[in-house]
Amino acid sequence: MDITLINEKIKKESAFIDILIQEISKVIVGQKDMVEKLIVGLLGNGHILLEGVPGLAKTLAIKTLASSMKAKFQRIQFTPDLLPADLIGTMIYNQKEGDFKIKKGPIFANFILADEINRAPAKVQSALLEAMQEKQITIGDKTFKLEEPFLVLATQNPIEQEGTYPLPEAQVDRFMLKVKITYPSKNEELNILRQNISAEIPQINPVIKAEDILNARKVLHEVYTDEKIEKYILDIVFASRNPKEYGLDNLTNLISYGASPRASINLALGARAMAFIKRRGYVIPEDVRGVCQDVLRHRIAVTYEAEAEEITSENVIEEILNKVEVP
User: Which of 43, 35, 34, 23 is nearest to 276 (CA)?
Assistant: First the structure.
């Protein structure tokens, strides 16, 4: 395997990344990590869950990403009274023809913004689950394949409990990344303030096509991942399941259950996507560490004991990363 040739190919194929980030930056001030992780999800063909308090541009970031591509975008506001038919569509009786016709729902798009996803009940989540996992929708006795790229970008507010439903673990595990968004710095907020009170509103133009993403996904599989990097990924995941084997005895009573095999897959894909964004044809340990928190934070459950001591899954991941040997 010639790393030089792969490097040259990746540099050529990833040229659109800078253009895409530049276009998104017209509207999104700061939040570099969030923008990077949105692109990682896009390249890795994985769904993303954005979590943060209100007003941190979660919805705006997703809309901006969709606007910067020539792709279909649909926003669905999740509410407690939402029905599966509101999401996937339904069969409508045509009186004139005396037959039922299928009316497709908003899920038939490339980008789905599932706003405040934890406000909808389980029956809606199960309808969304088929779309997320199988990339298909079933209405009546007919099954429809969803158009690629298909990406669910969901938001949830962590501080509000009124009228919310905790997402099932099986569904949360299907999100490639769970990205936590924090407040901007003082300088960034000053720029946000100036941008929002100015007379000129920045316009987002579609700078890339859906085909560019699909081509990039094919090239992503050519990014070289050394055997040592693969072992490093497995060590991180297995340390969350069997902490004692890695000299992390203190975590035994703090972890309820460790990361699933999807974590290993998504760590490898996420690391490759990070290498692609950095215009590199091979994965380095920093790429793995760069996506580790976002891939694992929703896949490691802490015990009541850990919660009582205010220890989160992020603290657990940090300890694992500090202990597991870096290749």
Answer: 43
Q: Residues near 308 by Cβ (< 8 Å), separated by ≥ 6?
A: none
Helices (H) and strands (E) in the chain, counts: 14, 13
CA dist 30 and 23 (Å) reads 13
> Residue 241's Cα: distance from chain center in Å?
23
**Cα maximum dimension of the chain:** 72
Q: Mention every residue, 6+ apart, whose C-beta is less than 8 A from residue 245.
A: 238, 239
Domains for the chain: give ranges and CATH numbers: 26-217 (3.40.50.300), 223-323 (1.10.8.80)
pLDDT band at 21 (very low <50, low <70, confident <90, very high): confident
Cis-peptide, bond into residue 168, ω within 30° of zero: no
Q: What is the pLDDT of residues 213-248, one digit of tens each?
A: 888 888 888 888 889 999 999 999 999 999 898 888
The pair of structure tokens assigned to 213 is: 């993403």
pTM of the model: 0.84
The answer to whether the CB of 41 falls within 8 A of the CB of 175 is no
Q: Which of 18, 222, 270, 44 is nearest to 149 (CA)?
A: 44
CA distance 212 to 17: 10
Whole-Å CA distances, 36 to 14, 187, 196: 13, 20, 23
Cα gap 226→187, rounded to integer Å: 40
